[in-house]
Amino acid sequence: MDNAERIQKKANKIYEMVTTNRKQKLTDNSCAFSILEQGYREYIENVLRKKPPSPPIPEKLWLTRFRDWSSIFFAPGT
């Protein structure tokens, strides 16, 4: 097994542990994969498949959706 395969295998294992919340310490120190994956799906649909983007979310509604960005991008207590 070469280095690329080892890295991919470890990344898949960590991803699975984080998304199933099997290791709380890893989950606390990881990004919100579900948000990244949703953005990826929207990018594929809107950019790569050349579909017009959906109307923007009104700013007031958008801000209430994500009140605390630190909980998404940073470990608690940082």
Question: Could you explain how this protein is built, in words?
Answer:
With 78 residues, the chain is mainly α. It is 63% helix and 0% strand. It has 5 helices and no strands. The chain has helices at residues 3-19, 24-28, 33-48, 59-65, 70-73. The radius of gyration is 16 Å and the shape is flat. The N and C termini lie far apart (38 Å). The mean pLDDT is 76.
Short description, anyone?
63% of the residues lie in helices and 0% in strands. By secondary structure, the chain is an all-alpha fold.
Assess the beta-strand content as a share of residues: under 5%
**Major beta sheet, specifics?**
none
Average pLDDT for all residues: 76
* Rg measurement, Å: 16 Å
Secondary-structure element order, N to C: HHHHH
Low-confidence stretches: none
Helices, by number, come to 5
Helix content: 55-70%
- Bulk shape: flat
Protein topology:
Layout: H1 3-19, H2 24-28, H3 33-48, H4 59-65, H5 70-73
Q: What distinguishing features does this structure have?
A:
63% helix; single chain; 78 residues; mainly alpha; flat
